[in-house]
Amino acid sequence: MKDTQILSTFQELASEPAAPAVLPAPLFNACQVGVALRAVLLVELVVAVAALFGAASLADWLVRLALYTGGALPATVVWLVVACASRRLLLRLSAAGQYVAAVALGGLSGLYGCGLLVMTSLLDMPPWLASAASGALLAGALVGALALRERGKTPAATTARLAELQSRIRPHFLFNTLNSAIALVRAEPARAEALLEDLSDLFRHALVDQGESVTLGDEIALARRYLEIEQVRFGERLRLDWALDPAADAARLPPLLLQPLLENAVRHGVEPSPEGAQIRISTRRRGANVVIKVTNTVPAGPGAQGHGVALDNVRDRLRLLHDVQGQFRQVFKDGLFQVRIEVPA
Q1: Which band of pLDDT confidence, cut at 50, 70 and 90, is reported for residue 21?
Q2: Spatial distance between the Cα atoms of 70 and 131, rounded to a whole number of angstroms
Q3: Exposed e or buried b for every residue in 221-254, given b needs 16+ CB within 10 A?
Q4: Is 80 exceeded by the pLDDT of residue 25?
Q5: What is the mean pLDDT of the chain?
Q6: Which of 78, 138, 139, 240 is such that its CA lies 20 to 30 A from the CA of 206?
Q7: CA distance 330 to 9
């Protein structure tokens, strides 16, 4: 199986130590690219609207927009850089303390932007108070919106987790695995023992809280165990192709993210086909990003691709962890189904 068959559809784009006192959850993370983009977009929209007041013509509005942007954009960048650099200090504050600090930093950033315009002699009467108030107000609005988004992660992540567990601990998968182990006990006891060990590892990872993220290397190791179990069941009908880049192993993923993709590949590719199917798992580091692909052949017939519930689950969990830096795409072409994931390295 070669990726070139469907790549044209895509645009390449140990035990933990005892924890100290629990710190408050962060209201926002200014180090994320998505947060920076939202902050700049919010400020530019406000500046564009503010420039309308008093503008006599389109040319006058453009001049005012350029003037205001000259002070607002550097102030926004300063706010983002300082908030990101002081993230550890902010985590030591309560939620209210973080909010107050962000608003105060916004006021100082507004003064900084006004000072830049004064230094360039673009303002005869600098609006110091208005600049500070505007910076504080924008910072407060942005942090409030980001805090609501962070708060919304908890129920969404919990729902995704429950759906993931339901997908993983399917009774038929458990029964099929145990039946395979029983069949091997007398003929190949060592292989039966290995099969049960793999099953134990799968359940251990499914039932133990892994935290917000795990490494891609850990996900690949778990995927190997799952596919080894299914290999016993399907034999030569399940053909595997691994193309792994060790440089990509450190990338972070939500726990158990690859598992539903592989289950889909087995369920919709191998199970319905007497000839079986080929599944290809590839990882590759490309600069600052890591690309992960899961590709499988799909037999012809209605409903071969399923309903996409597991795929939507994976997409949502990826977005919660990496925001705009995480990309998820899927395509079905010429009897091949591929999921392509891109995350920061």
Answers
A1: very low
A2: 13
A3: ebbbbbbbbbbbbbeebbbeeeeeeeebbebbbb
A4: no
A5: 80
A6: 240
A7: 9
Question: What letter represents residue 275's amino acid?
Answer: E
Length of the chain: 345
Contacts of 297 (CB under 8 A, 6+ apart): 1, 269, 273, 277, 278, 335, 336, 337
| Tokens standing for residue 263 | 């289950």
Strand pairing of 289-297 and 277-286? antiparallel
Q: Which residue has the tokens 């190791």?
A: 221
Question: What separation in angstroms does the CA of 28 have from each of 13, 133, 146, 286?
Answer: 27, 21, 6, 28
- Per-domain boundaries in the chain: 33-153, 169-344
130's tokens = 């208005």
How large is the average pLDDT for residues 109-138? 86
Q: Residue 217 in contact with residue 258, Cβ under 8 Å? A: no
Averaged pLDDT for residues 89-117 = 88
Looking at domain 169-344, its CATH superfamily turns out to be: Histidine kinase-like ATPase, C-terminal domain (3.30.565.10)
SS (H, E, C) 79-119: HHHHHHHCHHHHHCCCHHHHHHHHHHHHHHHHHHHHHHHHH
Q: Any idea what the Cα angle at residue 77 is, between residues 71 and 78, rounded to 5°?
A: 90
From the number of C-beta atoms within 10 Å of its C-beta (0-12, 13-18, 19+), residue 175 rates as: exposed
**Strand pairing partners for 294?**
281, 339
Residue with tokens 């017939």: 301
C-alpha distance from residue 271 to each of 45, 177, 298 (Å): 53, 15, 10
Nearest by Cα to 207 from 153, 168, 258: 168
More confident residue, 181 or 174: 181
